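Posting for a labmate who doesn't have an account.
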Amino acid sequence: MLIEPLQDVCRLISRPEIEEERKTYTVPQQEEIFSLMKEIMTDDMHFVLAVYNRTEKEYLAH
């Protein structure tokens, strides 16, 4: 459920046309893009884990 958006992102960034578009950027631009993507995905993972942990605690409390 919550992991599906992350799976969608992984599928999207592994598409061949994304690789071709990536080549149009300079190396410093690519590094900046990847850094931003990493930050976004890290935030998303923290959110998913926090929701999972909260849901698990609520489930175990009942």
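Reply:
Got it, the structure tokens are right above this. The two ends are 22 Å apart (CA to CA).
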